[in-house]
């Protein structure tokens, strides 16, 4: 499978991703999976401006990505998958995407009541999605930049 890294970050494409993570994993494709961005040529255009030379941006809806997860049809290249929240990621895993580990940046949604770490806040539904991902045996690693130490989110989730 050409997926080098899966990252959950509500900002999707930004400097830490384009300069840090895409370089660290050698990604030449940023695959943004977001219904909001897929429906907005303006948002897609803004993200394209942030993508470094030699890296291609692909934007899919969650349903398109679910189909790809089910039948294994991904873009050519070394892919860094970006989703904004754990709910969308859990939908991909339910459709057949197999993961051992997920990289987590900042995740903050409107109505988030659960502070899991300084960087990760969750709504009730997102907390359920995080738990489901952890129950699949996926290592949930909070790490803003490649050189920083990883913080395991799984332990915090099991306490709730």
TrEMBL record:
Annotated signal peptide: none
Annotated compartments: Cytoplasm
GO molecular function, one term: protein-N(PI)-phosphohistidine-sugar phosphotransferase activity
Gene3D superfamilies recorded: Phosphotransferase system, sorbose subfamily IIB component
Keywords: Cytoplasm, Kinase, Phosphotransferase system, Sugar transport, Transferase, Transport
Biological processes per GO annotation: phosphoenolpyruvate-dependent sugar phosphotransferase system
A GO-annotated cellular component: cytoplasm
PTS EIIB type-4 domain mapped to chain residues: 1-160
UniProt-listed InterPro entries: PTS_IIB_sorbose-sp, PTS_IIB_sorbose-sp_sf
Chief localisation class: cytoplasm
Annotated protein name in UniProt: PTS mannose/fructose/sorbose transporter subunit IIB
């Amino acid at each position: 499978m050409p997926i080098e890294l899966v990252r959950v970050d509500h900002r999707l494409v930004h400097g830490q991703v384009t300069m840090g993570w895409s370089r660290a994993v050698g990604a030449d494709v940023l695959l943004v999976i977001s219904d909001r961005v897929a429906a907005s040529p303006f948002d897609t255009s803004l993200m394209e401006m942030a993508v470094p030379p030699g890296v291609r941006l692909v934007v899919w809806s969650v349903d398109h990505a679910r189909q790809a997860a089910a039948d294994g049809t991904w873009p050519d290249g070394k892919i860094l998958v970006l989703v904004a929240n754990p709910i969308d990621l859990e939908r991909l895993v339910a459709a057949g995407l197999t993961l051992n580990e997920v990289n987590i940046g900042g995740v903050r949604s409107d109505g988030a009541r659960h502070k899991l770490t300084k960087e990760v806040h969750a709504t009730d539904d997102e907390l359920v999605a995080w738990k489901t991902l952890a129950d699949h045996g996926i290592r949930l690693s909070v790490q803003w930049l490649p050189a920083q130490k990883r913080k395991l989110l799984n332990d915090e989730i099991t306490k709730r």
